[in-house]
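Figure-free illustration: sequence to structure, shown twice.
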Amino acid sequence: METFEISSSFSWTAYLLSNAVAATLIATSKKRPQFTRIIVLLIFLAAAAVNTYIAIDAPWAYQDYADTAVPLYKKFILGAFEPIITPMVLAIAFCQLLIAISMLGKGQLLKTGCLAGIVFCISIAPLGLYAAFPATLLLAIALFRLGQTVIIDPAKGTRPGIHSKTSNSTKSHI
């Protein structure tokens, strides 16, 4: 039986803060969607920057994630992932950057960014403690709720943005 060991570089403060922020974003996702978008943008932008730096400077550091990952992820991290760490993490960082940028958008771009963020967060949840589990699942819930605030305008086939409503009474009928 394997023993569970936490690296001395693990920060309980960062772990608790990540979970507190993610829980807060669930609460703000519908009541203050603009605030939630800004925080999500900053989270994914910071993650993209940090991952880019580490992927180039110290790619072997990602193997530490195997310490708290579920067995399938651990096997991948210590096996097939090892020779492709840098390009794989750079691709992940690029996707994180795209998710961050999507938080600046409206309509379908924002909705797609929320969906991509959900998929990303659920995908890294099996990394466990080092991915701040369950913060990733909490953030996925916040992104789901944020995506629900995007309103569909069926007449135009577009989504005009968050909480925007078109009214026929304001349109001219000439």
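We now fold a second protein in the same way, so the two outputs can be compared directly.
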Amino acid sequence: MARTTHAGRPEARQSPRADFLIAERPGYLLHKAGLVLVEDAEKALAGVGMRIRYFFVLAALAGGPELSQQDLSRLLNLDPTTVVTVIDEMERNEHVERRRNPADRRRYNLILTDSGREALATADRVASEVETEFFGALEDGEREALRGMLGRLLEGRWPASVCTD
């Protein structure tokens, strides 16, 4: 239903401000939506004692191939020193183990522990609730279409392209 002005005329859709043209750019809107979603998730995850980057690392380690700290840095676009800090914390929390890579003794593979999988399950429930709320304005088909479009935009760029040996 279209909104109307006090004079009864339909209200025109426009940027938040006429001079804020960046709000018409799909790339900026996508960036801003991502920032808002991450901010919401960060607040919610704090309720279970976790930061978003910790959750991202847990989720990445729960997937297919064994990853190294370097892989995680590229995959999640995190500074290598940040990854070391997060992995050190995860190791203290017994959520991850570092194991020498048998093919390359200089590298460590990161292995999620049972405790790490439990922490991931808790955090994943929280993240799912945040996403449900955030995407609530979209119908199921729209949400799936958005996911498909984002997948096509990232095809060949992420994630496989950053996790090669």
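Summary for the second example: The mean pLDDT is 88.
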